[in-house]
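Objective 1b. Sequence-to-structure analysis of N-acetyltransferase domain-containing protein.
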Amino acid sequence: MEFVTRSDRPDLREMAAVVFKERWPEFIFHDEVPKKYMDRVEQHFRHFDIMVLDGGSVVAGGWGVPIPWDGTAEDLPSGYDGALVRAVEAHEAAVPATTLAFMAAAVGASHDKRGLATAVLQELTRRARNAGLAHIVAPLRPTWKHRYPMVPMDEYTTWTRSDGLSIDPWIRTHQRMGARVLGTAPRSMVIEGTVAEWESWTGMIFPVTREYVVPDALNLVRIDRELDRGTYVEENLWVQH
């Protein structure tokens, strides 16, 4: 198993994109904030964008962004979108970063149960420590929350198994690494589109104005037929390692 950055191996970017896309719903890729900032994230923070190679193939990967953070819950970004904005704007304003925010980790569907997600997070942590960053945080997108889209995140995080760990596999991964919950990120991602776009992204039909349960959405999606607008505000969970 070998760790490389995407900038080290640009020839593997397409293979890595497949690994990252297969676990995410289509609508996630239509958040406007990453569209505005990802080119600069890739330019500024290449050291924290890694792939795991096994036999020359990409089997997992993950990335993070360094942000200034004073260590209090009140100073956390709004979530995923907020962390991207803060990382880029702080870097370009020469504001020193204190913290690495894990933004995503993905494992190829045929490589589950190998501990690869944990390995990715550990490697990113090692790189953060070597870079002198004092804190590690993450705006988690819990794996099973989409099964309970009408349950608030703060309630969902209290649901535990008999061993005291979360019922959620992704939260458990972080708990086993020593992470603790800091609080919810109520507006972690905001995704908007026309009704036709939402129908294309989800394979559903939205005939009337109302909130809908959408596969793989952690919260309800609001469809307004009169305004021809669909809006999804995703709530995530901040944890600290």
